[in-house]
Amino acid sequence: MSAIIGSRARGRPRTRHRLPPAPVAPARASRYPAGMDTHITDCIVIGAGIAGATAAAHLSAERRVVLIEAEEAAGVHTSGRSAALWVANGGPEYERTLAQESFAFLNTPPPGFAATPILTERPVAFAVPPEQLADLHEILASRSNIREISVAALRAMIPAIRPGYAVAAALETGNFDIDVDVLLQGYLRLARSHGATVAFRRRSHCIAHQDGHWRVETVSGASFHAPVLVNAAGAWGDEVAVQAGLRPLGLTPKRRTAVVIDPAPFEVASWPRLYDPRRSWYCKPEARARLMISPADATPTHAQDVQPEEIDIAITIERMQQVLDIPVRRVERAWAGLRTFTPDGAFAFGEAIEANRFFWFVGQGGDGILTSAAAGRLLADLVAGRAPDWLPGAARILPAIDPRRFAAA
Description:
This protein is α/β, with parallel strands linked by helices. Helix content is 24%, strand content 24%.
């Protein structure tokens, strides 16, 4: 996708820039020799979460792409378990810029990308106990789209706030809930429209580089060959690198828990997301009539089909009930997902230290969804060897997220 994704200044995003649909590429044969499950292509992408899906969507506009995924569906462990929020002013410069450059696409995707809106405006409110007043002042000083409001105004929006809990409050506007499944399926649909192949139940177990090509063998017996390999395997990213004989980055998957309850007698559909300034927990409306709560945990774990721990569920309920006077008769659903971080917490986008056209596209740490449109375009530029002239501050951003920054380690 070479069209412009709209940029914006701080504050409420502009929506007038649109990404026109990319031309549909003709179907191209990639399987040979006859009778063998061997696939020859231009680029292999490993992992069909939000990173792999957006990588395939962007790369397939210019080259033949095969996207392989170990599970039976896309986004099983991370993307499919995310309660993503688009924010304009969160995180370091690279994250803010990629999020802002993604907004126009997420807000007005190309025709046929999604049948329903991807974004729904959702302000963020902060309930501030006495010990977090200094944290609130730091937030107010650092962001342009947040203002202090009265505790009475907060309780008018969220009547369940316990009297006496908050001594101050704030409201941040210009934020949007993201329908992650709609977005993920849209990227996969766009990739397929460009001629990409999406292959599920294809877990890699042996990767080798020879004569300028990567060969990925899977446990199913399928073999994929291409000069370019993109590692978008999330929590399994280091495992893929080791299979390829490359040094791992030191990725750390971290568990995050979510719980859904019935908030009766309160009607929560119009509530903002609610945080404390230290983000030790949050809640948001879920399916209009339910409330999703998270302790905002980030417990180091390993790559796995992570499940919620009973202690984390209990902590979630306890933190919520310190703030909201909502009886919890039962937990309707609980789950956990993985958010994967590099050693320094920044993204890792770009060619591996060992080169050979092995590209890392990992380490988004829970922020890969709101930055996805611009991140995928940036990856396509890196693979093609193009300068991302459309990306503000590229000279500062690229070194911050280049995986080769870990060479000394």
